[in-house]
Amino acid sequence: MARKLQLGFLFAFPIVVLAALLAVDRIFGLPGQGFGYVLQIELPPSRTGLGLPEVVGPIDASRPLVVIDPGHGGHDPGAGNDGALEKDVTLALARAIRDELVAGGGIRVAITRPDDRFLALGERSSIARRLGADLFLSVHADSAPNDGARGGSVYVLSEKGSSEAAARIAARENRSDIVNGVRLENQSDVVNAILLDLSQNETDARSLELARLLLREMRGNALLHVDGVQSAAFAVLKAPDVPSVLLETGYISNDADAAYLRSREGRETIAAAAARAVRAYFARQTDA
Predict the structure, then answer these.
(1) What ranges make up the beta strands (E) of 92-177?
(2) Strand ranges (DSSP E) for 143-205?
(3) Is 213 within the bounds of a domain?
(4) Which domain holds residue 260?
(5) Are 39 and 5 in contact (CB under 8 A)?
(6) For residue 11, what pLDDT is reported?
(7) CATH number at residue 137
(8) What sign does the dihedral 234-264-63-214 (CA atoms) show?
(9) String of b and e for 99-110 (b: at least 16 CB within 10 Å)?
(10) Does residue 76 lie within any of the structural domains?
(11) Residue 7: inside a domain, yes or no?
(12) pLDDT at position 226
């Protein structure tokens, strides 16, 4: 009489499990029946395609589109401090920036992850490109071994970071694509070379322009850690044809910053500054 062993998942130590089944069958199996087991392995559904998030704002497709990317998400919480998780802080901030932009009219907005889900770094920039975004704004909350570090920073893409701290932060964020020691997405040297090719000078210049406007609007309205545009090799900023900026809104490792970022006042202040910068950016593109 066949005995059926249903295994929900058989990912960990498959050889050990099969060896154990063989041993049990040799001891207890009936003569002439051989294996008395049917192995049923239920695999998770494959991701046949990356769904695109909802675009809100004017129905007119000619209106500029901003894609806001809340850092981390799902099983990747990012930095944390006494219950405050970066993935939650960035999602709340992204929603606040979206609402501020939509309320002002004339700009369409999408959020790469509208809820607590995991997205690989390449998926984030891919969403922006597939939607035909005019701007990509990645929102994060920094952390540092020194819990006295405070304030926001603005980054653009650079093959080499502008400082040791910038390189450290980029390395931490880029590890978001590594789960259990396995890199989920690798970019070839050829692709990286294309992304950083001189043909992207226009995109880089526009990214720098938005970054400077963000600093201008945050200056005097929100605490800045570094009052100047920083550069680092953030993988999430490597869309070759979409101006992209990464906004570190503050240090979640600092108690005061963490409380500010989680507060309504903090979210509204940062969202208003970001919205003003984006509107100024598009106004300059129209005048050019």
Answers:
(1) 108-111, 135-142, 153-157
(2) 153-157, 178-179, 182-183
(3) yes
(4) 63-176+195-287
(5) yes
(6) 39
(7) 3.40.630.40
(8) negative
(9) bbbbeeeebbbb
(10) yes
(11) no
(12) 87
